[in-house]
Design brief:
Naphthalene 1,2-dioxygenase Alpha Subunit, Chain A, domain 1; binds fe (ii) ion; binds FE2/S2 (inorganic) cluster; seven-stranded antiparallel sheet; 6 helices; four-stranded antiparallel sheet
């Protein structure tokens, strides 16, 4: 087991990924198998048959039970063996660990720590999801071949967007604008307002404001230990922005990434995008999805290159800059959280 917070709901899969057959996935360096039971609910088990350790994910679902592909032992959602072909008595050891699971927002969330602490109340809550006037792009997934701390640092670091994403989301005006940082016990946020700037062609069309200048807010949240939420707001310059309602009068997006470590050098990157413009416009959503995928792919390539260099050198960085403040603080808070849990 690596350096992970265990007592937390992690995204394990999109609900749509769990169909008629089992899904095997490595989570927090543990092999896990997910499958649907007879009542449609998802179960998660350690992906090892107690007989000969064959991955249960190689098997099939039979009437809501998971059947090992080798000798046909069947397991229920609690990981208990309920059938052994050719044998009436079931040895007490014939079981595999089960993990608490909750499905919400189209995501299967798994709790890999102490099962008795797995309270659904502690699930991350997704702002505006399912509300009228808001649209969701979900199902986003990339496997990032890098340690999840590299990814958290990337997501807390707006300074790279001007350069790495110059062809996608980069804004040359943002390059010189520093961010402010705030933190609580649960999250850290780096944010900035770019005031009185020109709207992008996209903003112009979506806001329907012609060529008037705009104020653009960017908020980069890291909710410990695994969720990034990037919020952007575009308002006509000078518009009030004290209340949630005033902020929603402009273009508003919430871009979520649910990071689940796969191994020490790879991460499941589930992404979801929530917006209050072009609602119900499937064509716009498809274009937005493709643009987001492209942007995240740019990050993936950098993270992979960094991961390789880190493994080669055993180092993380040689010099610190001012732009590292929020990323370094996020990584420290995470390390502290892991340490506190161990203690
Ligand atoms: S290894 Fe699974 S039933 Fe034998
Ligand atoms: Fe990026």
């Amino acid at each position: 087991m690596g350096n992970y917070v265990l007592n937390h709901w992690y995204a394990a899969a999109w609900s749509s990924e769990i169909g008629a057959g089992p899904l095997g996935r490595r989570l927090l360096d543990e092999p896990v198998v997910l499958f649907r039971q007879a009542d449609g609910s998802v179960a998660a088990l350690a992906d090892r048959c107690p007989h000969r350790l064959v991955p249960l994910s190689m098997g099939t679902c039979v009437e809501g039970r998971l059947q090992c592909t080798y000798h046909g032992l069947q397991f229920d959602g609690g990981g208990r063996c309920v059938h052994i072909p050719g044998q009436a008595t079931i040895p007490p050891k014939a079981s595999t660990r089960s993990f608490p699971v909750v499905e919400r927002y189209g995501v299967v969330w798994i709790w890999m720590g102490e099962a008795e602490r797995a309270d659904p109340v502690r699930l991350f809550s997704i702002s505006k999801h399912g509300q009228a006037g808001w649209d969701v792009i979900d199902g986003g997934y990339q496997r990032h071949p890098s340690n999840y701390v590299n990814i958290i640092e990337n997501l807390m670091d707006p300074a790279h967007t001007t350069f790495l994403h110059s062809g996608t989301i980069g804004n040359p005006l943002a390059g010189e604008q520093p961010v402010a940082t705030e933190r609580t016990d649960d999250y850290i946020v780096a944010y900035r307002w770019l005031e009185n700037t020109s709207p992008s062609p996209h903003d112009r069309r979506r806001l329907n404001v012609g060529d008037v200048p705009v104020d653009r807010g960017q908020f980069f949240y890291f909710h410990l230990p695994s969720t990034s939420r990037v919020e952007t707001i575009v308002l006509p310059a000078g518009a009030p922005r004290d209340t949630d309602e005033q902020l929603c009068a402009g273009l508003r997006t919430y871009s979520y990434k649910f990071l689940t470590p796969e191994t020490a050098s790879s991460t499941h990157f589930f992404w979801m995008h929530v917006r209050n413009y072009q609602v119900g416009d499937d064509q716009a959503a498809a274009m937005l999805r493709a643009a987001l995928e492209r942007t995240y792919q740019e990050d993936l390539e950098i993270e992979l290159a960094m991961q390789r260099a880190q493994e080669e050198t055993g180092l993380r960085q040689l010099v610190s800059l001012r732009i590292d403040h929020a990323p370094v603080m996020a990584a420290r808070m995470l390390a502290q959280m892991v340490e506190d849990e161990r203690a």
